[in-house]
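Morning - flavin-adenine dinucleotide inputs below, output right after.
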Amino acid sequence: MTSMLDRIPGAEPFPGSAAARTFITEVEAFIAGDLAALVSRHGITHESGAPRAVLDEIWQLSRARGFYGVTLPKSLGGAGFSVLDHVLIKEAIYATGSPVAPHVLGELSGPPRVGALAKVVSANQLERFVVPVAEARQAICFAITEAEAGSDAGAVQTRAVRDGDHYVLNGAKRFISGAPFCDLALIIASTSDDPARREVSAFFVERSTAGFAVEAGYKTMAGQAGTGNIVLTDCRVPVANRLGGEGDGLRMALGRITVNRLLHCPAMLGHARVAFRDALAHANRRQQFGRPIAQFQAVQHMLADMATELAASRALMLSVARGLDAGDDATDGASMAKLFCSETAFRVADKAVQVLGGEGIVQGSRVEFLFRMLRMYRVLTGTSEIQRNTIARTLITA
Ligand SMILES: Cc1cc2nc3c(=O)[nH]c(=O)nc-3n(C[C@H](O)[C@H](O)[C@H](O)COP(=O)(O)OP(=O)(O)OC[C@H]3O[C@@H](n4cnc5c(N)ncnc54)[C@H](O)[C@@H]3O)c2cc1C
């Protein structure tokens, strides 16, 4: 009999397409082979990250093997996978436990950042900004958050003031993924003359532009330094770099927010599966009181709860993916999935730490890292509270 937990990439029945199944087999072999060798050669850990030159090597390797650009539209060389296939592929990549898993598809700075933009950029922007990112020659980051604009993203105070054929940008962004190693940024700024009126626009800004500075060097609680701030001081940007019209920025930049919310779920569940696997292996191996701790009912119950929560959150994720493929709006479903997967993945990691005992709380143990990593997903890309607000809005009419 196939158990719920067998219904995971790597075991049948596989719910995606045959092409996705083949892709997963090939990408897993790539990660276990060439990529693992590269990780070992450069001593990369989950927390050390990799210098830009090594990231370039990873992106190019992945591109040469046909993986890097798979999420792009077909016109740019993408595979045209469904949302369902996409979540299965991402989950499988993260479930390998590789410290460079996010870079295989270029999630922080590559094709997934520009794929949806390809349809809305000008021909000039496609050539200058989208294609170089799609081809792994450049890295882009996506900068909305500011000191006074977090959950309320439309409250950005970075100003873009028109000056002839240019805009002059001033402001400061914070917590921007990939900023430390980016070549360009999509900057969200206000083009309103009136502080009371929100008019948010988006601009491609090259790092080489005078007045563009990246402040890096701080770490998130996961111990990673891939997040940085961007300070813009009288940064002159050609009008041709504006995405769409004035006031279109947030809508265009966040155009795929529903799909993007869902697409964070496979990363969380992939991480959580690694924590579960480590806990299960430890429970079977570790002997106390003359027997494996897996024989104690208290430990069995923790493992049973982990398996149940993984299966339930995965079922929700796959159901929302199928809905999106069928043309559903899925605003509520994507928020439910993001909320539920982030909260359950963290609980799974918490139990994994408990099953590992002292070994689980020593820095350097993988579940200890995953516990910290998975805590962050309850804040990233819309906190759990913001997801609940979105869900509630679809319910309440009063
Ligand atoms: C590792 C990392 C990577 C990130 N990457 C990026 C990136 O690439 N680009 C980018 O632009 N940003 C990025 N961010 C920023 C992230 O999107 C914000 O941190 C997030 O949206 C929350 O904003 P905030 O931190 O200002 O918290 P706040 O908005 O100040 O929220 C603080 C608390 O108040 C609650 N709260 C706020 N408003 C409401 C409300 N209306 N109802 C109920 N509760 C509310 C929140 O849920 C939270 O608990 C990143 C953050 C991290 C940690």
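Note: The pocket of flavin-adenine dinucleotide is lined by residues 141-145, 150-151, 175-177, 220, 227, 376, 379-381, 383, 385-386, 389 (CB under 6 Å).

O.
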